[in-house]
Specification:
Elements lengths: L2 E7 L3 H8 L6 E5 L6 H9 L2 E4 L7 E2 L2 H10 L2 H10 L5 E2 L4 E3 L5 H10 L5 E3 L3 E7 L2 E6 L2 E10 L14 H8 L4 E7 L3 E2 L14 E8 L2 E9 L3 E3 L1 H8 L6 E4 L17 H4 L4 H11 L11 H7 L5 E3 L3 E2 L7 E6 L4 E2 L4 E2 L5 E3 L7 E2 L4 H16 L1
Parallel strand pairs: 1-2, 1-10, 2-7, 10-22
Antiparallel strand pairs: 3-6, 4-23, 5-6, 8-9, 9-10, 11-19, 12-15, 12-18, 13-14, 13-16, 14-15, 16-17, 20-21
The structure holds flavin-adenine dinucleotide.
């Protein structure tokens, strides 16, 4: 049977970018979806948030020294240059986010154009990987494919409906790699019964600051029928495993500056959506009266509007999580090459590795950067 020089597992962001840098090599891509780049297509509301102007190590969960080495070799500026040279000029939007101008398809088409000479076997389910002598055998639903080197770019577990699978972790484990427990991230939080009052606010969005441990995220929070979501909650979910989070529903506002009138009711003076205030007052059993007339116990309860602490029940899960945190431990991967330190010829790229970014284009940047490092070394 034909032996390829390199087989790339997965035609997602990392797999296609790796293939773009391997145009003159003998490469095969295996992909179980009938088409490539499923996540790029639907990402960023159909416009793909490709990267971010403010790329920084603090935007990632993972070993900062490892991540730094990858970005030293291919960072956001390198990515923009790569895209510009090929006619794609991303637009800069708020918070430093770079998006495709009109549609994610601009990026997909660019990557497909770069890889047009690379054969892709679609509809092939990768089931495992073995190494015999100096050669890898990829076991798949279409039989075995052979190569001297393999790049595992099969992503994480998020959005199984778009083709996510655990095969990357299984392959890494079968070669002795350690897996940092995968969990859904950049996902909304589900609630314990004590916080079900928030479900009554479904549809309301307001700005808030969320604290998880020492991390703080200030942006919008969105109440939904399942729990709470929105950019600040998605970011907070990256650093939350279990335990409490704290929400400041009046970020940047001191409570004493809210209740300036001694005659108007406290509820009336709170600068938050009326439905929110009404539901909060009902939940806390607070009287409809001016703040100054409230007794100390009521004032104390009302102060939770600045620091509402509770433990979420969990996250919305892999069905709704934008990414998977955890994954193949970076301690067993060489950051100079993205090659396994345990198995020669085995490379990893993208979300399958234990590096995860915040909302804002940081995850595609990681997928592309790690893929370029792998491709340049393979
Ligand atoms: C709804 C949504 C919106 C997002 N928006 C953004 C955004 O705007 N900006 C951002 O930075 N990040 C965003 N992300 C995250 C981003 O999509 C991922 O971090 C990124 O796609 C990871 O790239 P990857 O190549 O590692 O994995 P993927 O892009 O997931 O590619 C993995 C590929 O491997 C294939 N595969 C998996 N298992 C097998 C198997 N057994 N056999 C064969 N093929 C297999 C998959 O079908 C897929 O094509 C979003 C994610 C989601 C779900």
């Amino acid at each position: 049977m034909r032996q390829y020089e390199i087989i790339i597992l997965g035609a997602g962001a990392a797999g296609l970018m790796a293939a773009s840098f391997l145009q003159d090599r003998d490469v095969l891509i295996l992909e179980h979806n009938p088409y490539p780049a499923a996540k790029i297509k639907i990402s960023g509301g159909g416009r793909c948030n490709i990267s971010n102007r403010y790329l920084g190590l603090e935007k990632y969960l993972g070993d900062p020294r490892f991540i730094e080495k990858i970005f030293k070799r291919f960072d956001n500026e390198s990515l923009l240059r790569f895209l510009n040279e090929r006619g794609l000029e991303p637009v800069l939007r708020e918070n430093g986010c770079y998006f495709c101008k009109k549609s994610s398809l601009e990026l997909v088409e660019l990557l497909l154009n770069e890889t047009k000479k690379t054969p892709v076997e679609y509809g092939v389910e990768v089931e495992g990987l073995e190494k015999e002598g100096g050669c890898f055998a990829v076991r798949s639903s279409a039989g075995s494919f052979f190569a001297r080197k393999v790049i595992v770019a099969t992503g994480g577990l998020s959005y199984p409906s778009l083709g996510a699978s655990s095969i990357g972790f299984k392959i890494a484990e079968s070669f002795g790699h350690s897996i940092i427990k995968p969990r859904p991230a950049l996902a909304g939080f589900t609630l314990q019964p004590e916080q079900f009052w928030m479900k009554e606010l479904s549809g309301i969005s307001t700005s808030a600051e969320i604290s998880v441990g020492r991390r703080r995220f200030a942006s919008d929070i969105l109440f939904t029928h399942r729990g709470i979501s929105g950019p600040s909650i998605l970011d907070a979910s990256l650093f939350w495993n279990r335990g409490k989070i704290t929400i400041d529903f009046l970020p940047g506002i001191k409570l004493k500056n809210v209740f300036l009138s001694s005659r108007k009711s406290a509820a009336f003076q709170i600068p938050l959506p009326k439905r929110f205030v009404k539901t909060l007052f009902k939940t806390l059993d607070l009287p409809d009266m001016p703040y100054k007339k409230m007794d100390e116990r009521d004032k104390q309860r009302l102060s939770c509007i600045k620091s509402y602490s509770f433990s979420p029940a969990g996250t919305f899960g892999y069905d709704r999580a934008e990414v998977t945190k955890g994954g193949i431990s970076t301690s067993e991967i060489d950051p100079e090459t993205m090659q396994s330190r345990l198995i020669e010829g085995l490379f990893f790229a993208g979300e399958v590795v234990d590096v995860t970014g915040l909302v804002g284009g940081y995850n595609f940047q990681w997928a592309f950067s790690s893929a370029v490092v792998a491709a340049k070394s393979v």
